[in-house]
């Protein structure tokens, strides 16, 4: 404890923030893909037509790919004093994030917000703890992508799609700005 204020340790700290997928973001793809996949599979078994088996595989594959979007019990994005967490990537320290920018890509009247994180180094080098997904999870949907940074270095930019997440883009950006150095 330093200074003369005996209550400075009780000063309010920035609250942790977490968000998941909106459940309806993937319901149509998962439930529809499963229904039609099983329908085509039954048709393929009954008729022996290979084209129906191929359609069943495509529909069931789509349901498998979008399955994480209906699992709302696991946070996809977390903002804490420890750092910034993305499911499937891990924890990024606040000192490793050089710049944050939010931008919209609108299709007609539909807003598709994106969050762009410029990293101080490639993501693999600055991750606090690797949240390595199993080999099956790698094949499923995720809300982020690693890209080449503006300086040309590989994996030094992360683009996060915000529209399938439950929290608003403004809430996410405000939560991050509480922890970013110099923000």
Overview features:
4 helices, alpha+beta, 183 residues, 30% helix, four-stranded antiparallel beta sheet, elongated, single chain
How would you summarize what this structure contains?
This protein has 183 residues and is of the alpha+beta class.
Textual characterization of the structure:
The structure is a single chain. The protein has 183 residues and is of the alpha+beta class. 30% of the residues lie in helices and 21% in strands. It is built from 4 helices and 8 strands; from the N terminus they run E-H-H-E-E-E-E-E-H-E-E-H. It has helices at residues 24-47, 50-66, 123-126, 169-177, and strands at 17-19, 77-80, 83-86, 90-92, 97-104, 113-119, 144-147, 157-161. It has a 4-stranded antiparallel sheet with strand order 1-2-3-4, covered by helices on one side. A hairpin with an 8-residue loop joins strand 5 (97-104) and strand 6 (113-119). Helix 1 (24-47) runs antiparallel to helix 2 (50-66). The model has no long low-confidence stretch (mean pLDDT 84).
Overall spatial form: elongated
Give me the secondary-structure category.
Answer: alpha+beta
Average of pLDDT: 84
Beta-strand residue percentage? 15-25%
Radius of gyration: 21 Å
Helix-strand sequence? EHHEEEEEHEEH
Tally the helices. Answer: 4
How many angstroms separate the termini? 26 Å
Which range best describes the helical content: under 10%, 10-25%, 25-40%, 40-55%, 55-70% or over 70%? 25-40%
Oligomer: single chain
How many extended strands? 8
